[in-house]
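Can't paste images in this forum, so I'm doing it all in text. The chain is below; anyone willing to post the predicted structure tokens underneath?
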Amino acid sequence: MRNRSSKLTMSSSISTTFNPTKSKRRKKRWNFLLLFLCFLVLLVSFNSIPISTVSEGYNDVSPHCQNFDHGDITPVPNLTSVFNCNSPSGKCSWFHPAKFFDESCGMGMKYSDALTYMETQRMNGTLWMNGPPIVLPWASFNPRIRPNGNPPGRTIPLPTHNLSMVHVHKTGGTSLVTAFGSLQSKTRGRRRTSYMPPKKRFNPKPRSANSEKRTKRMKLLAGRSPKQQRFEPDSTRRNETGTFLEGAVKYRKTWGEKDHTVFAVVRDPAERFISAIGQATGAYGSSNNGIGRMLVDECVKSTGRETLRCFVNLMMNNGTWIEVHFTPMAYEISFATMYKDIPVAVFPFDQVPTLMYELNQSPASKKKDGKKKGYRKSTVLTNLTMDQYDTETLHDLCKVYAVDVLFLSRIGHSTTCDPFNID
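Text version of the structure:
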């Protein structure tokens, strides 16, 4: 009886303190409070992220970078031109290379050491030896220049504006530089040079040469030799180009005498790499680069897939400095503009015909065509295509050109590298 009475007492106690209806109400209130607290935490977190992080995917949220100026990309209102980037008529995106590579807050800051390396090699004369000059053609346009007159070329008067161009290699640049040249007799304009690589004669070894010796010579061409040759940069020409670049502006309605908009063309890294291989191995314009024969001996195999794998390995082991056509596009733009804080109008490769039209040339005109028979040094090189990349080779190539993947993403361009989420 005693134990039973005890149990009854406990049961009675429970029945008097436990109310299912009240418990449910209390539980609902707690759930509501928890949800409200979670909402507050999320709201505070979101407001603590700078606007540039939300809109541009910028990862640095350190206090000193929250108000960092990544560059003005707004278009000029009520101005119709393909050069008025980010406008309804614009075919380009604004890029600010100096801000992108800013060592403290730039989106590409982890790649900024490459600019220091380039400049060191330029100063001691080992950068892109035997390569083509780094040029910036420019021209001043006005309606008095006679239009091309032959459709699909231009038949209407040209606008009044001043244009210059960074020649990013393997993006249709030779055709565009030539188009600028054809305008020089008709208007103000000339070709500026920011760097003239030194010339040095090489005597390539025959095909039976030791592979290790070839590799050492490639490292020499990549600027990795401990012996640096004496070299005096052309300071006068470079200083003149630097002064010229000070006049670079975003596209506008009215133009001062020294104002000009700089533009460049970019391309998918994997497509551009195929074109670079065909060029660097001794195609027209690069037959005297001092490395073409060595590249052929080292990496041109019996199939396109093997050839691409070998060239990607070459970049991974020796860097992209061995020949100018392999240089990442973001580096080329920064180098050619002499690291100055200026805007550059960046066009995708498929807009080259549009640019040829704007330069008063036939849109279909093309100075170089890697698919033409005999242009490249072998049938394997002529027939290289994107389909010949295997997944591993493409992934490794994307890592080599990670700076370009980031740069193109920054200006809103997709690439074949995007699925790999290259960091």
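Residues 1-24, 38-60, 204-209, 224-230 have pLDDT under 50 and may be disordered. The chain has two domains: 33-68, 74-420.
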